Amino acid sequence: SRPILQLDALRMVYNADPGILARLSGRADPPVIAADDVSLDLHPGQTLAVVGESGSGKTTAGRIATLQERPTAGRVLYEGEDVTALTGAALKAFRAKVQMIFQNPYDALNPRLTVGQSLAEPLTLHGLVPRAGLRAAVIEMLEAVELRPAESFADAFPSELSGGQLQRIAIARALIIKPRVVIADEPVSMLDVSIRSGVMNLMRGIQRDTGVTYLYITHDLSVARYMADRIAVMYLGAVLEEGPAETLISRAAHPYTRLLIQAVPEHRASATRRTRIRLPGDAASQAGLPSGCRFHPRCPLAQPICREKAPPLAPVGAAHRAACHFADDVQTHGLGAATAAT
Ligand code: SF4
């Protein structure tokens, strides 16, 4: 299928030009490359999960996909059309098609409005439902996110509801205008572990019913595997590996992906268990990016060439790409590849 949303060679640099005063005073922060040639395709009705630690650029990619931020270079395409520079009415029309769900549901809800008013707002803003039909549309949406009795939830204020209920309402608010694409940035990570799978299953059910496309941003590989058709692994602003979810995990071709898989507890009780990515060494910051392969300071398989030459994101299987000089060895021998290669 043709991608519905594409990120094409995105580059995002913060503090590229700190200004003359900061430079003269010597207090200029170095530039931070939050996205370095990031290309990702979202296919209609599917979920692409973007997995990474903090500082990987996954949230930047999501913010650019919704045009909350404009890239330094590269393009965002919606149904093949370049939307990168949209403004005004065209931007508003784009926002009706591409919605965002945040980590903290409070960000999406005005505490002074009832739930019903909050849900009606986007319908009014985009002129989608006449005033007389608002209440019915709100009730229908509350039913869809399984908040019953819908009538009493419609009249409640955010302060009266739990975190899980609020996230369901934030999801309802993003979906009520029937967007084609939803960008979800860690939508369950602030919720109690016991209610995460409920919210994830709700999102999957809505996708089955409506064909909505998700870009699902998470630090948690097990959540990505549960939610996604495809997974992209990001590190210091770049995609290191990308492929079909099951293949990426069963035939991981990048040492970083292998380490992420090892970091997931093997006998986890459910896909929703809290698993922070823990790896040896610090994630370097994007400022002062390592030479050659950006992962080499933490890579157990690093060779001299890795410090000199950046590996391209190259095919390692069907619709599966990885950026490692030794991807074939890693795919065959896992993290034992170093001994196999020498
Ligand atoms: Fe490790 Fe070298 Fe592969 Fe980078 S290119 S991931 S340093 S083996």
Automatic annotation (TrEMBL):
Highest taxon of the lineage: Bacteria
What main location does UniProt list? membrane
Output the Gene Ontology cellular-component terms.
Answer: plasma membrane
Q: Does the keyword ATP-binding apply?
A: yes
Q: How does it sit in the membrane?
A: Peripheral membrane protein
The UniProt keywords, alphabetically, are: ATP-binding, Nucleotide-binding, Transport
A single GO molecular-function term is: ATP hydrolysis activity
Q: Which residues form the ABC transporter domain?
A: 5-261
> Which SUPFAM superfamilies does this UniProt record tie to the protein?
P-loop containing nucleoside triphosphate hydrolases (SSF52540)
Q: Where in the cell is it found?
A: Cell inner membrane
A GO BP term here is: transmembrane transport
Which positions carry the signal peptide feature in this UniProt record?
none
UniProt family annotation:
Belongs to the ABC transporter superfamily.
Q: What is this protein called?
A: Probable ABC transporter ATP-binding protein
Write down the species: Oceanicola granulosus (strain ATCC BAA-861 / DSM 15982 / KCTC 12143 / HTCC2516)
